[in-house]
């Protein structure tokens, strides 16, 4: 250990000390005597890192892996501190201003707590939250609110939020049957053109179909992102079964016919539905 860096090894006794330790470490890494990689990073170059770390933290939550969650939240915090250091170097903002701005926002958006001690229902609280957000961002129309939904969100989540905004003013089906009919309509439109050469129109129709499916999910109270992730995991599990089963038969998937793989796939489906067959 370099003697002059001994302080960086000391664990913070309080949250404030621990965060300051991280701030100091990032500052060192980005200094002239720091790390060559850290020194050249920009907000844009580490943008994907922020997104990935947030998803890894979300994955730890889904898995109820709290040890991993602690680690992943640290990685998210690292990204915030890193961006704070970048902002400070450019004289735009720093971790202090980031935290203070968030504190002020929380106070503004919780008037029922900071200005009024009367208890309110969750629906009323959310209504006030949305009203304050609109005032802060200057979104006077419902279209403004839709445009304010970040494009960087996963497409399923963004479309879900867009549809909810439309539904708030009554632009919606009366019930889920209308949403199901729309899925059928969009499927038929895609079937009518999918064999053609107009890739732009095919992409548009695929998008329309996905948007319609998200609408069905919204009516059924299902988060489409979670539903698709669940199915992707289920697919991986079943595919893993057919690959293992094929290996036990001394076969490679590349050498098997689709019919042979389909047979193992059906076995995997039965196995996933019958707990006794998973053992």
Summary, kept brief:
This protein has 279 residues and is mainly α. The protein has helices at 15-29, 36-39, 47-62, 66-89, 95-108, 111-114, 122-137, 142-147, 155-168, 176-193, 199-219, 224-248, 258-273. The mean pLDDT is 92.
Task: Describe this protein's structure.
- The protein has 279 residues and is mainly α.
- It has 13 helices and no strands.
- Among the domains are: 3-93, Helix Hairpins, CATH 1.10.287.1080; 226-278, no CATH class.
- Helix 10 (176-193) runs antiparallel to helix 11 (199-219) and helix 12 (224-248) packs across helix 13 (258-273).
- The chain is extended, with a radius of gyration of 25 Å.
- The relative contact order is 0.04.
- The model has no long low-confidence stretch (mean pLDDT 92).
Element layout with pairings:
Elements lengths: L14 H15 L6 H4 L7 H16 L3 H24 L5 H14 L2 H4 L7 H16 L4 H6 L7 H14 L7 H18 L5 H21 L4 H25 L9 H16 L6
Search tags:
279 residues; 69% helix; mainly alpha; Helix Hairpins
Beta fraction: under 5%
Mean pLDDT: 92
CATH fold assignment of the domain at 3-93 = Helix Hairpins
Query: DSSP helix count?
Result: 13
Question: Main beta sheet: strand number and arrangement?
Answer: none
CATH class category of the domain at 3-93: Mainly Alpha
Shape: extended
- Radius of gyration, rounded? 25 Å
H/E element sequence: HHHHHHHHHHHHH
């Amino acid at each position: 250990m370099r003697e002059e860096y001994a302080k960086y090894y000391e664990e913070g006794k309080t949250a404030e000390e621990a965060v300051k330790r991280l701030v100091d470490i990032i500052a060192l890494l980005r200094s002239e005597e720091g790390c060559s990689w850290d020194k050249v990073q920009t907000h844009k170059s580490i943008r994907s890192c922020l997104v990935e770390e947030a998803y890894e933290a979300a994955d730890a939550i889904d898995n109820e892996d709290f040890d991993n969650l602690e680690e992943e939240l640290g990685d998210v915090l690292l990204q915030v501190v890193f961006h704070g250091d970048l902002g400070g170097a450019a004289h735009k903002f720093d971790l202090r201003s980031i935290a203070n701005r968030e504190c002020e926002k929380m106070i503004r958006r919780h008037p029922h707590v900071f200005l009024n001690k009367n208890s309110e229902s969750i629906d009323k609280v959310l209504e006030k939250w949305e009203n304050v957000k609109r005032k802060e961002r200057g979104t006077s129309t419902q279209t403004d609110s839709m445009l304010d939904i970040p494009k960087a969100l996963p497409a399923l989540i963004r479309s879900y939020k867009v549809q909810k905004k439309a539904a708030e003013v009554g632009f919606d089906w009366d019930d889920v049957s209308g949403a199901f009919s729309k899925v059928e309509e969009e499927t038929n439109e895609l079937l009518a053109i999918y064999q053609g050469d107009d890739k732009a129109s095919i992409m548009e129709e695929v998008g329309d179909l996905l948007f319609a499916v998200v609408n069905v999910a919204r009516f059924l109270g299902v988060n489409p992102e979670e539903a698709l992730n669940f199915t992707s995991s289920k697919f991986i599990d079943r595919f893993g079964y057919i690959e293992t089963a094929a290996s036990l038969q001394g076969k490679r998937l590349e050498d098997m016919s689709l019919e042979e793989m389909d047979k193992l796939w059906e076995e995997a489906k039965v196995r996933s539905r019958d707990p006794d067959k998973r053992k």
